[in-house]
Structure formats: C-alpha cells, structure tokens
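QA checklist item 7 of 12: single-chain prediction sanity check.
[x] sequence parsed
[x] length recorded as 157
[x] structure emitted
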Amino acid sequence: MAKKPETSARIADNKKAVFNYFIEERFEAGMVLQGWEVKAAREGKVQLTDGYVVIREGEMYIIGCQINALKTASTHVSPDAVRTKKLLLKKDEIRRLSAKVEQKGYTLVPLNLHWKNGKIKCEIGLAKGKAEHDKRDTIKDREGKREVERAMKSRQR
C-alpha cells in the first residue's frame, strides 16, 4: 500500500504574538472544527494573526482565527471563514486561566496550530502586553544577532 505523504506538523504560526506580548505560559488545546475547516487547514489556508481567545461561561473560544475555504468546498455547506471556534481544555485549567486573565494586563493569544496524532491542536499562551520600548529592544536584539551572524559568516570565508 502507498503511504500518504508526510505533512508538516505546523499548520500556522502567530509571529505577531511573540513580538507584541511576553508569553508566560503555554497550553495545548483541542479545537472543534467542521470538515471543510480541516481540509482547508491541510492545505495551509489558516491565518492566526488577528485571533484572540475569550472565556465565556466556563468555555474557551478562539475569535478571529481565519480559515479560508477551499474552492472545492461542498455546495450544501456555507463556509464562514471567521467563525468562532470552541477550544477544548480541562475545566480546572480553564478556571485557572480565567482567574489569571481577570488580572490587569493578561490576555490569551493563539500561538500556533499544529497536528498531533491526526488531530488539530491550538497552542495558546497566557500573555502580558509589551510596551513600545520593549518592542524596540526586541528589534535591536534581533538586528544585533543578525550582525554577529554576518560577521561570523564573513570571517569563515
């Protein structure tokens, strides 16, 4: 039998979240998705940059995560790209996170979507917002590392 080609474990990353927030804790949550969303995720039609996580009535939802439907989507399904999706976590973890989010400055952001044992999981982070000077420091550190890499590369030649 022919094996299926290996797909990358990562589906989508939220690079903006790491730039805009200090990530203090990370959690892995399952997602409630429809069939067309899973097919679109396999093709990489997912965008997390505008997404955020809310807790309502003891349940977690991801809002703003955009999964664009494939052109081959079924005719009897009306796909909504920015549908609110439910996240699956244990109740005690949700209670602990909701207590932390009620503190000033904390929020929940989606960090990435990935495959785990044939299921799509969402990594969410308990985050605290960065000030403008912190963002400048991040840029300065990144450029400094890039300069060091360039110098090392030219030195090896």
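[x] summary fact logged: The chain is about 30% helix and 35% strand.
[ ] second reviewer sign-off
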